[in-house]
Structure to design on (297 residues):
């Protein structure tokens, strides 16, 4: 009975969103996107799209999303939004990070990307335009992937902090006490495989078109680069996502090493009390800010 009720609620929600969507103006980018997608299908094989398209999507998305944070370090006005202002980025650290990223991207992640075509073929996942899910379905699928990945990340990330194994694997990622965007995927190769597994679980559950692979890549990169950015930018649209952790939440994890283990949402840390040190830290900061305000009045 409960299952039938849940299905009914989901169907009602889907119909409601579909009804609202029918009143929205036509997306001016839809036709150019359709033309580009059709051109891609007509000129490249499924193997080329799944393999080289996925690699290109990951690399372009990663460094384009990193670009604003990279530029912020040269803009004095933006420094007031930097969370750990006493620890500026250095060229030496950024170059070290970039070299490690290139190794991980092409020697760890790319071999996994090579399996994308065979995954789509085995599960008969379509590539055609007509089968592509609507934007709200795609958005809900990405949210579902994020929920699954977040659960996987919390428990495995917490395990990697165990004192018996921390120094062998996860310590690499914590070389940077004050994170910056490009450092999001700076990690030991084993950690890339262990935590990266959570990315693929959601795909196996929800994927009904190859576009979800790319949409989820972009969503995941947006989130992980944002929380590693080192900047708490006001009016960040990601803060509209319910229970979103954000840069301050994860920045504290790098600064403190203990607690705030989740990747995207705050509920696992709240449930298990692993955000207690962060909450105490925030309360202390708020008290200090109140005292400063009283002195200036």
């Amino acid at each position: 009975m409960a299952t039938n009720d849940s299905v009914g609620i989901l169907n009602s929600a889907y119909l409601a969103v579909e009804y609202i969507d029918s009143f929205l103006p036509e997306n001016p980018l839809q036709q150019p996107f359709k033309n580009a997608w059709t051109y891609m299908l007509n000129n490249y094989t499924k193997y080329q799209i799944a393999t080289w398209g996925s690699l290109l999507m990951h690399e372009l998305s990663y460094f384009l999303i990193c670009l604003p944070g990279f530029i912020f370090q040269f803009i004095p006005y933006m420094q007031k939004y930097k969370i750990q202002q006493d620890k500026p980025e250095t060229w030496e650290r950024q170059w070290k990070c970039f070299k490690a990223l290139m190794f991980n991207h092409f020697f760890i992640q790319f071999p996994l990307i090579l399996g994308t075509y065979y995954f789509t073929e085995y599960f008969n996942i379509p590539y055609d335009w007509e089968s592509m899910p609507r934007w709200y379905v795609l958005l809900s699928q990405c949210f579902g992937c994020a929920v699954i990945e977040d659960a996987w990340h919390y428990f495995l990330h917490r395990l990697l902090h165990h004192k018996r194994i921390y120094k062998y694997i996860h310590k690499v990622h914590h070389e940077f006490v004050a994170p910056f965007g490009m450092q999001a995927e700076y990690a030991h190769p084993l950690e890339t495989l262990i935590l990266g597994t959570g990315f693929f679980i959601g795909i196996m559950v929800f994927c009904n078109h190859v576009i979800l692979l790319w949409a989820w890549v972009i969503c995941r990169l947006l989130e992980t680069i944002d929380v590693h950015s080192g900047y708490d930018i006001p009016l960040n649209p990601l803060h509209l996502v319910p229970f979103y952790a954000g840069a301050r939440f994860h920045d504290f994890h790098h600064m403190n090493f203990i607690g705030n283990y989740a990747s995207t949402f705050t509920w696992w840390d709240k449930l298990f009390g692993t955000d207690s040190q962060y909450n105490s830290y925030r309360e202390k900061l708020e008290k200090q800010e109140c005292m400063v305000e009283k002195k200036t009045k």
